[in-house]
Amino acid sequence: MSTLAVARPTTDPVPPFVVAGSVALWLGAILAGVAESLVRLAGPIPPTLGELAARSAIYLVLAVLVVQLRTGREAVRWTVVAVLGVVGLWSLIAEPVQALLGETTVIGFLVTASGPELLAAALRTLHVLEVIGALVLLFHPASNEFFRSGRVARPGPVR
Questions:
Q1: In 3D, which of 68, 77, 85, 66 has the Cα closest to residue 145?
Q2: Of the ranges 52-56, 72-76, 126-130, 152-156, which one carries the lowest mean pLDDT score?
Q3: 3-state class of 52 per DSSP?
Q4: Where does the chain cross the membrane (predicted)?
Q5: Residue 158, helix vs strand vs coil
Q6: What's the CA gap between 66 and 79, in Å, rounded?
Q7: pLDDT at position 112, please?
Q8: Is this model's pTM higher than 0.85 or not?
Q9: CB-based burial, 13-37: b 16+ in 10 Å, e otherwise
């Protein structure tokens, strides 16, 4: 009995510029998070070694996930949106929003913050802007078409 095998494509589909741009922004956001963690080492309440190790592991997993966007798989896109775009973005804005709802004002923060705190706030702002930009590009019409085409089942062995 013979088996007919259908060759799998050796390369993944080439992502459009907007998907590549989204990946670059996601990776930039992750790097901004890493930089913010390092800057906080010089702040008034530095992260512990355990916190840094946990964040490093999380950032590594997220970077691997983001790079997978280039495959065009719809499930990867929605995982990135849920984990980084929703949960991640909420974690970035929750603390500043709580501070603004309390006694803190933007002017008050700017006047009293130390250098490391100001740098961390600037990195957090960059991080948020990169996440928003990455989300917008991820749902551009060219991105939608790329991910829609990525849902086609890849051929496997025929028996």
A1: 77
A2: 152-156
A3: helix
A4: 12-32, 52-69, 76-93, 118-139
A5: strand
A6: 9
A7: 87
A8: no
A9: eebbebbebbbebbbbbbbbbbbbb
Contact 72/14 with Cβ under 8 angstroms?
no
Residue 104, token pair as written in the block: 């803190």
pLDDT value at position 144?
A: 95
Residue with tokens 């080439």: 14
> Quick one: pLDDT band at residue 5, thresholds 50, 70, 90?
low
Lookup: tokens for 47: 């992260």
Residue the block writes with tokens 């929605």: 78
Read off the DSSP letter of residue 4.
B
d(CA 2, CA 11): 27
Q: Which backbone phi and psi does 4 adopt, to 5 degrees?
A: -95, 125
- Cα 12 from chain centre: 21
State both tokens at 58: 């999380």
Q: Is 103 helix (H, G, I), strand (E, B) or coil?
A: coil
33 contacts 129 by C-beta, under 8 angstroms:
no
